[in-house]
Prior knowledge:
Distance between the termini: 68 Å
Structural class: alpha+beta
Number of strands: 12
Strand content: 5-15%
Shape: rod-shaped
Order of helices and strands: HHHHEEEEEEEEEEEEH
Radius of gyration: 52 Å
Low-confidence stretches: 1-24, 313-331
Number of domains: 2
Amino acid sequence: MKKTASVLAGILLAAVIVQPASSYAAGSTDKIDRQLQQLQQQEKNAQAQKNAAEADKKEAQHNKNKTAQYLEQVLANIEVVGSKLTQVTMELSETEIALEKTKQELEAAKKRINEREGLLDTRVRMMYTDGFVSYLDVLMASADFGDFLNRADSIKRIIGQDHNIIEEQKQDQELVVQKQAELETQYAKQTQLLAEVETHKKELDAKEQEKRKLIAQYDADIEEADEISQEQDSMLVDFATKRSDLEREKREIEEAQRRAAAEAALRQAQERARKAAEAKKIEEQRQAEADAARAAKEVESSSNTSDYSYSENSPTPSPSPDSTPSNSSSGGSMLTPVDNYRMSSGFGTRVHPITGKIKKHTGVDLAAPQGTDIHAAADGVVTVAQWWNGYGNTVVIDHGNGVWTLYGHIRDGGIQVKPGQTIKRGEKIAEVGSTGNSTGPHCHFEVRINGEPVNPVPYLGW
């Protein structure tokens, strides 16, 4: 009777202990679920802000590219106009030289005109002083026929000379007027063209300054969007960390709850078996003992279940960036997530293949054909399985002790796991793609310690 009373007291005590624990566990998990929902909403808000910043950055980059192209055209036009300005200036200088030369020619022509006018005036004065003598009188006064011919020839030359003087005088006068008019017209046109070209160049210079100011503004917008994106990135990492901690706490509570329930079931089965044995109910005793055995296995199973825990092995030397291992079973404590890869980019500072800016590369890029399997590097629980910023489609696995691995640029439809899912080392989690900020199919692989990216090479044992 004492033994029976003792067993009953033990069962009652266990029931008293288990029931509050179960109620506390249920209340705690509900609270964690609410916190997880709040985190999920905060993460959505952060992601929305991140997407908005990325959209603003994309728009600013697009406008910058358009403005830069327009600026290139403006600069090309400035170069053409500059060449035209140089040409017009040279032509204007040549015209000024020609004008100076023409001025000298005009002065000479005017001098010739004056000289001819003087000669003609002298002849007129002589004719007026001496009186008019006809050419016939001169011929008739010849002494003989030879003198007649000489006089006739002299008269012919005089007449021809007078005609030439008058003709040359007329031509020089016309030349002076024509040349002066042509050069003045040409000079006026070139002066006007020079003014127009200079005005055009000033307009282009103003446009150049305007476009450079716009580009500077777009650069500022891009930088601001980058700052917002980085801030949201940090927030998303914090949210993922908190979510991972809450999910771990929830699992621990649920495991404790299952263990308490299994222990209570074991005690109840053992008590039924004892009572059946005392009452000599063989079949009922056998069934109760079987139930007790099953409950004992559940207790043993729940007792052996512990949260995953990552511990880093000693790192081994890393290979050159272009090396291609024959398989993914490296000597490190983590498994290389992609088979038959080519490491297209290592960890550390590099020139970004898209932006062209010098930036830290937070992981390693394992280039492989589209659709190649991606495996978990170590045991853990999935905390992220969605589109994640510039990483595109991304999976993040929490391995415990603050260690994460990240797998980015997964192809659309290539994610094979869900948040909260427990994963074993080597299990397929995704497929290689080129989503997000990517120039070709590859798996971007990161190792993070307490949210901060570290060189993954020692963890992979390359």
